[in-house]
Design brief:
InterPro entries: PsdUridine_synth_cat_dom_sf, PsdUridine_synth_N, tRNA_psdUridine_synth_TruB, TruB_C
GO molecular function, one term: RNA binding
Pfam families: TruB_C_2, TruB_N
Radius of gyration: 22 Å
Strand content: 35-45%
Catalytic activity: uridine(55) in tRNA = pseudouridine(55) in tRNA
GO biological process, one term: mRNA pseudouridine synthesis
Structural class: alpha+beta
Number of strands: 18
CATH architecture of the largest domain: 2-Layer Sandwich
Mean pLDDT: 92
Largest sheet: 7 strands, mixed
Number of domains: 3
Order of helices and strands: HEEEHEEEHEEEHEEHEEHEHEEEE
CATH topology of the largest domain: Pseudouridine synthase
Distance between the termini: 26 Å
CATH class of the largest domain: Alpha Beta
């Protein structure tokens, strides 16, 4: 983040979901007024690649931690690993790791973990859309690809695979390959970062074009009826409201009964 602030010449830089220490890949940044759009990007699904190391558990569930247990898993086959991964696909309940930013009693879990404190964590619902075991990288290590809902901990998936196989496992080489429609092919190093127009950032939303009086109401953040006011908001929303003459994003609106109400309004 500090490098991005220096590169872009502003302190107002935010992100739509941090990367774990040691992880690489896609990180969405918002700059200036566009930071208001980040809350729409944070819930987007994520995609990752990583390697799962069978037979060794660690304190952090990845290769940055200390070894806490070893298991003889030399006899585990690739098909058995794939079956274990399949059992963790779909809507599941996941216990977040101690090395996470979730707060318990006002303290972040990773802060407690650094003090050697472990607390009970409630399981949270997450969705794993794809948990594909691609190949064996070396004996006891498999490469996997994961598509999942926001808030899913891939390191926990790795550990749970090991447990499902009757042993243990940890994660290494974690890389985020996509956040929603923003994949690694569109990413650039921080020092080469280029800003996207706000209208392109929310291209995954339904688009509503306005002009004249309605555009002025949108700029002022006024509520609108969903139909009959020279504009129609179709579907469930949210909607990217775009100025017809310029193509600029004016706001993002969401549904509230028979009205469309502003969720984010960008300054003129």
């Amino acid at each position: 983040m500090a490098r991005a602030r220096r590169r872009l010449g502003t302190k107002k830089v935010g992100h739509a979901g941090t990367l774990d220490p040691g992880a690489t890949g896609v990180l969405l940044l918002g700059v200036g007024p566009a930071t208001r759009l980040l809350k729409l990007l944070t819930p987007l699904p994520k995609s990752y690649t990583c390697e799962v190391v069978l037979g060794t558990e660690t304190s952090t569930l990845d290769d940055s931690g200390t070894v806490t247990a070893r298991h003889d898993m030399a006899g585990v086959t690739l098909d058995e690993v794939r079956a274990a991964a399949a059992s963790l696909t779909g809507d599941i309940l996941q216990v977040p790791p101690m090395v996470s930013a979730i707060k318990v009693a006002g303290r972040r879990l990773h802060e407690l973990a650094r003090e050697g404190i472990e607390v009970e964590r409630a399981a949270r619902p997450v969705t794993v859309h794809r948990f594909e075991v691609e190949r064996e990288v070396e004996p006891g290590v498999v490469a996997v690809a994961v598509d999942c809902s926001s808030g899913t901990y891939v390191r926990t998936l790795a550990a749970d695979v090991g447990a499902a196989l009757g042993g243990g496992a940890h994660l290494r080489a974690l890389r985020r390959t996509a956040v929603g429609p923003f994949d690694a092919s569109r990413a650039r190093p921080v020092d080469e970062a280029a800003l996207l127009p706000p209208v392109d950032v929310v291209a995954f939303l339904d688009r509503v074009e306005v002009d004249g009086e309605v555009a002025e109401l949108v700029r002022r953040g006024r509520r609108l009826v969903r139909s009959g006011q020279e504009v129609t908001f179709e579907g469930a929303g949210p909607w990217a409201v775009v100025d017809l003459p310029t193509g600029d994003l004016l706001a993002v609106y969401r549904s509230a009964a028979d009205q469309a109400v502003p969720d984010v309004v960008l300054p003129v």
